[in-house]
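quick one, 142 residues, struct below
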Amino acid sequence: MIIFNLDGVLADNSHRRHFIESKGSWEWIEEKQRYVNHQTGVFKEKIYDFESYESECNKDKPIEPIIKIFESLMFENHVKLGMEIEIWTDRFESLREKTEKWLEFNVWGAPSCKLKIRPVDDTRPECMLKELWLDEYIDAMW
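---
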């Protein structure tokens, strides 16, 4: 399988990253499903402004060099490789339609790929979410 990340790889989201970049020293505590600031001892359910971050996703510019690689792989895949190509994003499921429209307009072949997208109620950090997805994929292989 070949995996492409959407935000920051295919789509330039730099104009909206400030909404979700960590402010201060917060750590995700899995068993509490909360963030903790070790300096103050304060717990919070969210420290990011996902709503603002996601409302701007349709304004992302395509990252052309990566899109050309994606499109080349899609063409090669259809012609001879037969590999699964997926696009992963930490955007919420509620943005699936908006995301699919962006992909359809900006990336040839993307509509035929599986789009793995964050469940609406999952606010864990992106790296933890994608690590979980990768673990699930590996487990399914065995």
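The mean pLDDT is 86.
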